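Protocol step 4 of 6: structure prediction from sequence.
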Amino acid sequence: MSNRIKELREKQAKIITEARERLDLINAETDEARARDLESQHDAAMAEHDRLEKQIEREERLAALEKKGEEERARQRPIAGGEGAGQDDGATAEYRAVFAKVICGVDVAQLEPEERALLRQGAAKFEARAQTVGTTTAGGYTVPTELADMIVRSMKAWGPMYDEDICTVMTTGSGNPIKVPTVDDTAVAAVAHTEATALTDDGGSDVTFGQKSLDAYAFDTEFIRWSWELDMDSIFNMESLLGSLLGERLGRIANSQLTTGTGSSAPNGIVTASTAGKTAAATAAITWDEIIDLEHSVDPAYRVSPKARYMFNDTTLAACRKLKDGNGNYLWQMGDVQKGVPASFNGRPFSINQAMDSLAAAKKVMLFGDFSKYFVRKVGVPVIGVLRERFWPDMGIAGLIRFDGELGDTAAVKHLITAAS
């Protein structure tokens, strides 16, 4: 870890400590104006924490890029050469490293004084030439176009329903239906017995069994074709890059179907299969009391499961983080990154699932229950295939996945739904 990244991490830890101290100062005796000021300072500290996190990500990407570039230059650097030439190469490399920092988003004001000076010297050197890059006939034709050997990929979270740590996962080699027997005897109780009276034998207390089916629904990414020339000329390995992107597509469709699948010729998503636990009073907001009601709508027998948890999307989490008690204290518990204590939601684990709805009218925005009762059936593993002859001389790539999902016990997971109007 570089000194710069280490310094940023230490700043983050200090911010978290100070933010917790501010919140701890808010209590029933705190003046309202003082409480608002402390809350404002807390929000500003959290915003600074998030900004530092993004800066750390840029520094890490830049460090990786610089290391790879240095290794490449070391391989290409001539063995012979005078001392002056070596110094010029070093100065150019340093200027490029500082310039790369600025391009990657580092504020010029955050550079070291030596780096700013080097940047000014380099800029003056290259901008003072009579032969310019901007005009093709004045020198532009001699300047090659360089492409960084990295690609910026947009990201979107798509977990966690395909994760065996969340649900009960069954992996099979074939796709034949799997029948899962079920039984619900919770509504039947024993009765008082009268001495010397024959036991009732009318079948009214017989056990009723049921059955759930796990099938194997297939999904594909469709073919992506790329040319022979692109495969030869691209700085990237197109087969590897496209395969990685298609793998993410398969992950997204799996999570989406296992979350909100209709159950008709498709997986029965956990939101679809869940039963009503609590209806919120508002259309686009929830209260902490309603969250507690949701948790307690699930029988205690399920709440003791190690896989009992909450699930919602990130915007719902943001709304819950802003909830406060009667004294203005935030109800959200951030955990402690210094002590390795993870964040919890109402004292429970939670999962962010971006396939779930955000707060709006008549939306199932939160789940709670024993997720081990949700069965995910995987048929083999997702596959990525490349065709080199069908599209010859071009190539094609596509991905396939087979899976199903079903809630074995509908009493195990319940949802909180917002008001319809």
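Step 5 (inspection) to follow. The chain has ten helices and 13 strands.
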